[in-house]
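Q: Sequence in, structure out?
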Amino acid sequence: MAKIKPFKGVRPPKELVTQVASRPYDVLSSEEARKEAEGNEKSLYHIIKPEIDFAKGTDEHDDKVYNKAVENFNAFQQNGWLVQDNEEHYYIYAQTMDGRTQYGIVVAANVDDYMQGRIKKHELTRRDKEEDRMKHVRINNANIEPVFFAFPDNEELENIIKKVTSDSAEYDFVAPDGFGHHFWKIDDKDMINRITEIFAGIPYLYIADGHHRTAAAALVGNEKAKANPNHTGNEEYNYFLAVCFPESHLKIIDYNRVVKDLNGLTKEQFINKIGENFIVEDKGTEIYHPASLHNFALYVDGRWYSLTAKQGTFNDNDPIGVLDVTISSDLILRDILGIHDLRSDKRIDFVGGIRGLGELKKRVDSGEMAMALALYPVSMKQLINIADTGNIMPPKTTWFEPKLRSGLVIHKLED
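A: Exactly. Output:
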């Protein structure tokens, strides 16, 4: 059962929120962060990507960079750019993209729930990435950025969300990327208690996005528990910052592939080999979007092709084998193009669907890549099924958009 609690959020004053709020640390490079923060001393990038305060080329994993993060975090609080709420609250955080709004409940999620598997994951994590974020959490003694969870739809929580969001939002702005961000604080004590009770009846939470941040936050909390001889389980370090969305609110978008060469094959040989396991249709020069599960769009040599996996090439009863990312990884990338490890092979790159299929065409037409493969997006039902069966998704399967804006609320690991 999901154990959550309200917390005393550390937040920017309303008039400063657009200056403080930033994109998450892992969606942009140090140079992009430096450019976005230029002329803005209040940008959260000074805390989550503090290498921007040093000369270009400074190693972001240098101790002095982590030390700068906490120095800046303290300065933000001293300057009143971040202020802690006096009482414990839950918050509602909504995001609008393409006219569609998704509403999440901002909570302090439980470390032990993660350690015991009640917060379920669908991706593997890399230890080096975990360690980087663990250092960041440790030195700041805070979860500066939230993680992104899903939970099974719940009618009573939906009604609470509707009631809270019928009032005007505390923060309400459109970020430079065009996405809307809206934020409410829940003051009603009875409502706060009821939210805690409802979550206690929800068996599992699911990590949608932010596996490394979740692991890092939970591992630091676990370290603190082990180091405290008077540990009770109620300390603030037993919790970490999460935004929990009802699963029906979330939409996974496509995550596509581009490959540098055809592994020594001519275009005709390549397409003939694909035809052994797929029904291939030439769609001409106009961009073709995959129409359904097991249908793919291939772009090569100026033309688009529809590829439909033939019956018998996948197993509908295998939660991993039925995924289009598995079908394409096995039957095209591995068997034809000789790409065996999506994480390390330098011949392949990945393009989030937010950039559109025009980006795939551009990278092939430029000569940088030889072919592009567009996939139909994974569903939330598939993601939850994989997490529930204890399976792990193949690399580069899910892309969630919009990303959570960082800096709207922070969780300290001590009161």
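The first strand starts at residue 4 and ends at 5.
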